[in-house]
Amino acid sequence: MSYISLSLYFAAMIGIGVYGYKTASKDISDYVLGGRKVGPKVTALSAGASDMSGWMLMGLPGAMFVMGFDAILIAVGLLMGALANYILVAPRLRVFTENADNALTIPAFFSKRFKRDTGTLRLLSAAVIVVFFTLYTSAGLVAGGKLFVSAFDASYTMGVVVTLAIVVLYTLLGGFLAVSTTDFVQGCIMFVALVMVPVVAFFQFDSVEQVASSAFTSIPAFSESIRDITLITLVSSLAWGLGYFGQPHIIVRFMAIKSVKDIPTAKSFGMSWMLVTILGALATGFIGVAYVNNFGLVLSDPETIFIRFTEVLFHPLISGFLLAAVLAAIMSTISSQLLVSASSLTEDIYRAFHNKNLGNKQTVIIGRLGVAGVAIVALLLALRGDSSILSLVSNAWAGFGAAFGPLILFSLYYSRLTYAGAISGVVSGAIAVLVCIYVPLLVDGNTISDVMYELVPGFAISSITIFLVSHFTAGPSRAVESLYQQSSKLVSEQ
Predict the structure, then answer these.
(1) Which of 49, 52, 127, 257 is most buried per CB count within 10 Å?
(2) What family, per the record (predicted)?
(3) For the segment 283-318, what is each residue's pLDDT rounded down to a tens digit?
């Protein structure tokens, strides 16, 4: 019965891809941004679903097992960051990108913000997107592999391959319209699942006190967690919210919305969805700890607690629907990442530097080849199968947040930003994150990321570098300043 539910889900996703192919993939603007005609509710759930991914249903509940209530701080940071993204970035990015010669990608916006079609900044930004999204996509495939192993006793490799094949098919066919529409459907499925699972699991206990006493045999009580928290832990956890400003697969949704006037509706809808789903994920993890301790549930991998609940608490037909929610979370993010990566390969590397006169049909074909190329590399990384979902996501999240987050904010709010400052910010942010992760700089041989989330120093270094380099280099030209002032005026008028 579970297989029937999943088969129907797969068929629906492919059907949406075919619909997108027939209606909105005639030129590159349609393929990568849906012609900037996406409604607010689809924008909100598309941003949310592509943001949360498999870590929402697997990584975050699993973090409750390992970290206890410290995981709540990550959730709080994410909620604050998402809200700030809607307020600070969404309206201005929608106007600025269209006014900057209709920039279709983040690297194109960075370049055209300085009245350039090509250059080091565009190529460098595209390279960062392809590298970090390949890592990010592999995290989603790891989640898909774990799902098939845990739920169907299938091989990890089969899970990875099936997950990737379905996503690649509908992304190749329908582009942004298919991805956004499937995200909306997947977001609805995730919402229902993250309400249903913790509620049903809770009613297996006699009282709230029984849940708490069972859970606190493995994790410290909330009062203990608050007492033991350090400043570094607090900052590192809340800093997850900083990453939102630099996530191309999320902020590109703001570029595609119909109008700035639709953003408040998208914000209300999106933040409500996010609050409920994050609370559901945390509750799944907390009740999962209690259930394992109280009922002796065998759990080899904490990141699969949601999947185990679907098996032991629900009829196979309902279980199939809930497993589809896990796949929905995984696929929504993978498809968004593949599309943004392909857009950068096509628009920011191939078309910008190799063949500017490439026709619309040829450009879409190159974009589809880009999707396939990134997918293959991510597949090879995922087949190693030795990484946790949360660790892979946290590294990629930090990389984008530090490399692009400060530059997005400076591009939208700082008229004195210079081209040299922008390049320096991307380079310094990306390098800082990689150094924090891989270079043992501390006296005990540990890396900085062992004691602090690498996004914190990366974001700070990138911000300081952008400001200092822009301050000490020649200011922007009159044409660049005029573009900034004109875009700012258009924002205030809408």
Answers:
(1) 49
(2) Belongs to the sodium:solute symporter (SSF) (TC 2.A.21) family.
(3) 998 898 889 888 888 777 787 888 888 888 988 878
Structure tokens at 127: 């390279």
- 177-191, 205-219, 338-352, 379-393, range with the lowest pLDDT: 379-393
d(CA 463, CA 469): 10
Q: What is the pTM of this model?
A: 0.84
Determine the Cα–Cα distance for residues 323 and 152; give it in Å rounded to an integer: 10
Task: Count the domains in the chain.
Answer: 1
Listing DSSP states for 135-181 in one string gives HHHHHHHHHHHHHHHHHH---HHHHHHHHHHHHHHHHHHHHHHHHHH
Tell me the CA end-to-end span of the chain in Å, nearest whole number. Answer: 51
In a domain? residue 358: yes
Q: Mapping DSSP to helix (H, G, I), strand (E, B) and coil, where does residue 89 land?
A: helix
CB atoms within 10 A of CB 489: 12
Residues 6+ apart with CB under 8 A from 328: 9, 49, 185, 186, 187, 189, 190
296 or 4: which leads in pLDDT:
296
Residue 355 located in a structural domain: yes
Q: Which pLDDT score is estimated for 147?
A: 74
Alpha-carbon span 1 to 18, nearest angstrom: 26
Q: What is the CATH number of the domain that holds 308?
A: 1.20.1730.10
